[in-house]
Amino acid sequence: DAKTTQPNSMESNEEEPVHLPCNHSTISGTDYIHWYRQLPSQGPEYVIHGLTSNVNNRMASLAIAEDRKSSTLILHRATLRDAAVYYCILRDVSGGGSNYKLTFGKGTLLTVNP
Amino acid sequence: SAVISQKPSRDICQRGTSLTIQCQVDSQVTMMFWYRQQPGQSLTLIATANQGSEATYESGFVIDKFPISRPNLTFSTLTVSNMSPEDSSIYLCSARPQANTEAFFGQGTRLTVV
Predict the structure, then answer these.
(1) Cβ-based burial of B102 (10 A; exposed 0-12, middle 13-18, buried ≥19)
(2) CB–CB of B100 and A98 under 8 A?
(3) Looking at CB atoms within 10 Å, which of A37, A92, B2, B99 has the fewest?
(4) Whether residue B20 has pLDDT greater than 90
(5) Pick from B103, B62, B78, B105: which is nearest to A101 by CA?
(6) Which residues of A touch B107 (CB under 8 A)?
(7) Contact A44/B105, CB-based, under 8 Å?
(8) Predicted local confidence at residue A91, as pLDDT
(9) Confidence of residue A63 (pLDDT cuts 50, 70, 90)
(10) Residue of A99, A106, A108 best to disrupt the B interface, most CBs of B under 10 A
(11) Are the C-beta atoms of A58 and A109 separated by less than 8 Å?
(12) How far is B81 from chain A (nearest CA, A)?
């Protein structure tokens, strides 16, 4: 499986932007980049995903390097509710395009200071 | 989207006993998965629950220890058999409604084996 590398932890201040990096130097051409986050005492929740182009949604933006060997999750204005573990995951396509499974790494623990 | 309910939310069990965890999704889904999250750790995929057939287990997990059922497109169970204290973890159910959609997670079942 292609692996990802993330910093163990990051800190941010409330209402400031946060850039969460992820390295995936062994990514293959068909691997999608997924981001999930896990708030304290909850199951993970989907944040965003992309393949090659930068992506935006109501939660965050995903900036993907041109060589696709790294990506950055951008939270435009961090709130206290954004304190969570953020996981960068490469889609593992097994048994066909739709039968992929998500393999979680250690993720980045984001602390948001008031 | 999909809302996932897990039962029980937590339990304390005696070693040597078994516990069955239920996962109910509010809509039909293509894929269902079971994860384990040991204290302070990331999620580890146990198996893919296949509707109408045997589950597909990841390396290190076996059917005798973690039997899984999936009788229909909205329900699955995971049994943790012959429990030992090392089985103390959070067990999470995940579902993906359709191919190439985001995954949803339950709140998890916090299991303590004494």
Answers:
(1) middle
(2) yes
(3) B99
(4) yes
(5) B103
(6) 41-43
(7) yes
(8) 84
(9) very high
(10) A99
(11) no
(12) 23
